[in-house]
Amino acid sequence: MNPIGFEATEGQDNTETKVSLGSKGNPKDDDNLFFNNGVDRIDYILAYEPGTGEEETAKKERRKVFERELEKEGLKLEHEDKTKSKSGKVCFVKIHAPWEVLTKYAELMHMHMPLTENDIKIDFTSCLSMCPTPFDLDKDIMKQDDDYFTAPFSRTRMHQFMIKDRNSFFSNAQRSRIVYEILSRATFEEDKEQKKKFGIKKMISNESYDAAYPLHDGKYLSEHSLLTRGKMNDRHELYEIWARWRMWYKFQPLNHIRDYFGEKIGIYFAWLGYYTTMLIPAAIVGLICFIYGCATVFQDIPTSELCDKAKSGNLTMCPLCDKRCSYWKLEDSCSYSRATYLFDNPATVFFACFMALWASFFHELWKRKQVELEYEWDIADFEQEEEIPRPEFEAQVQRVRKNPITKKEEPYVPVWSKCIRYFTTASIIFFSLCVVLGAVFGVIVYRIIITAVLYSSEEFLLRSRSTLVASGTAACINLVIILILNQLYLKIGLVLTNMEQHRTETEWEDAFTFKMFLFQFVNYYSSIFYIAFFKGRFIGRPGAYDYNLFGYRQEECDPAGCLIELCLQMAIIMVGKQAYGNFKEILLPKIMVWFRSRSAEKDTSDLTIYTRWEQDYNLSEMPQLGLFDEYLEMVIQYGFVTIFVAAFPLAPLFALLNNIFEIRIDAYKFVTTWKRPLAARAQDIGIWYGILTGITAIAIVTNAVIIAFTSEFIPRMVYKYFYSNQTLQYYDFSLSIFNVTDFQQKSIPDDKKLAIFGNVTTCRYRDFRNPPGSSEYEFTVVFWHILAARLAFIVVFENLTVFLTWLIMYLVPDMPYAVKLQMLREKYLVKEAHFTSETIKQNSGEEHHAKQPLY
């Protein structure tokens, strides 16, 4: 199903009608979108800045051959000399695709075109969405598009399609996609081995052309509102109803985005909007849990006992580092413990369970939404039916074999070659991941050293905040390392993916995406995993510390646990990454556009028109990897929201606030700052869906383990229900006793600091071990009791979550009934159209000859 609006009235013939000269056809208009004759629409632009010397001679010859090949394919070209440009430096080649070229390639590319009007009027809206809300777009502005059943275009059955006007039958996005297909296959020279070199990508890489792009529809700014004068063009409409900051709370016009930028970009914004909407309940529940922690922090009995000198606060704690660290009182950890309770309270367990179910609902409901979009946008079978081999694949691969389906010769990569290439890439990936872990290891060593230095300070403020200071600065250093390594991995990922020689663009993107996500997953999350699951687990005990880390004693957690450090690490990396990304996405492109525009306006002639194609030339180029960076940013964020949400309940709220701005930032970039990208097609969000599913599965395990082992929830529950009747205070219960005479020589504190505490004979440390005397320092029964409770919690949490997830998948069908009904109706009409066509041919005595694809 393909909503397409037609401008023509009934009764027009099937010839290309001449467009009247005016604002669109006048060569002197700075928003002109036509050739100088005012008839032929500009479908693509090639731009270059001519130079001098032998190198320019070679470029000129390549351009000449390339453009001759384009004309052989039927395209019309028109040249604009550099003297006609505002800057006086750039030459432009305007390209127009005539009707014959459009119909030929529409058939080869299996484009779905309108066959008949949709006679099944079933809306996909729910009862809730029918209620008017302030989030809906103004219906007086948003005109409803016509709705059609579609079928793959065929020139032999052209009379069956709804061709009311040839000028508007193919949308601008479809026209540009057809022209790009020709540009990507046109040759420009042959090398010494008689191999043809072709493709606009290579023409740009060898600097024969500087840019190739379709034109925007015109200006995006107008002195008049949409309500008073209507839209000037589609770009203006998208800016007013979508890209402006004041529209941050409005729903997105997905069909308009798809019509202007193509299905691939449309699906990205549909997914981003759906994800952002689903974050609203998660953010609300997370905020409620945090407020609960704030409201009950002073009512928490263990924390109150820790902050009281007359109770647990007077306990003498063992030194947290060797020599320079002295004994300290438990009340020094008062503020740290209260901060920990804000995120480590009974509501946290409920929120972790809620987020596990939320992730399952998100996946299942998005699957339904995606099915609707696939049908409505005619992309359900795109990857199987329409996608063609990459030009780079056909150029690189020399071996050919007969395709068992098409019976045609085509390039292929043998299995043994694939194995060698994949083994090579796997080895390099493994080495790269080791580099990441090495960087994390360096940050750990830094944290150990800086913590020891701060704990030995005479200043109480530095000593009491040493853990937070060390964790905060280490997280900032870790963030800088992450951003640097990201740039390195980007280049490595491109080289490795190209080396694997993938056949189609989808296969290439999936392979590159998996590599980069694996890099990024380890890069962003490794330090967080260390704090959550390893810090303080393998330090040994007083008198038997582990010194395997370059002779350093390993880090310990505060008596209140490591959860606040985990929260701090997450907050710095998550918020810092988003702030850096927004800075790069907003400010840098605007600076570049301003600089290039200022450069173009240096022309002193008042007669030179600043044409639409030159205005677009001065816009920034969409990144080479397209939407990869946008998806990756959101998926990494999704990991923060789900994998470690038990440690940071405010993560969904921060993600929601960021995404509200992210949608408008991305919209603003696409509409105002970037050249109009190619309107590429895609069936879905690709491998990202599988990655999101994997993250959800990991999140169930990690949240269970964080609550069981990193949080103090399980020990507190065991104490509350089994040991509180023994008149023990919680920290008497959870801290073991150590005889200071049993210290290792290198662990004994500096004698100068002992006067503060007097004659210390015993100190406390975080563990469940026997006191000195009997079964010295062996694990107590309480330790095994708590370990059993922790393991039981993990088993119950995971199995309950998995069961509820399965129940959701069972109860929520993947395909809505309305979509299924319309798909069956469309298949029936397509079959009838084929039968009708064959009957007409047989009656007229014509023979049917099937068109064979050229590739």
UniProtKB/TrEMBL annotation:
Q: Where is this region: Disordered?
A: 1-32
User: Which GO molecular function, any one, fits this protein according to its record?
Assistant: protein dimerization activity
Q: What domain of life?
A: Eukaryota
Q: Name one Pfam family in it.
A: Anoctamin
Biased composition (Polar residues) is annotated at 11-20
| GO CC aspect terms | plasma membrane
Q: Where is the Anoctamin dimerisation domain?
A: 34-254
UniProt cross-references to InterPro entries, sorted A to Z? Anoct_dimer, Anoctamin, Anoctamin_TM
All copies of domain Anoctamin transmembrane, residue ranges: 257-826
Query: Which controlled-vocabulary keywords does the entry list?
Result: Cell membrane, Glycoprotein, Membrane, Transmembrane, Transmembrane helix
Membrane topology, record value? Multi-pass membrane protein
The cellular location(s) given in this protein's UniProt record come to: Cell membrane; Membrane
Segments spanning the bilayer are 268-293, 428-455, 467-490, 511-533, 635-657, 685-709, 782-812
Give the similarity note. Belongs to the anoctamin family.
Q: What is this protein called?
A: Anoctamin
Its taxonomic path starts at: Eukaryota, Metazoa, Spiralia, Lophotrochozoa, Mollusca
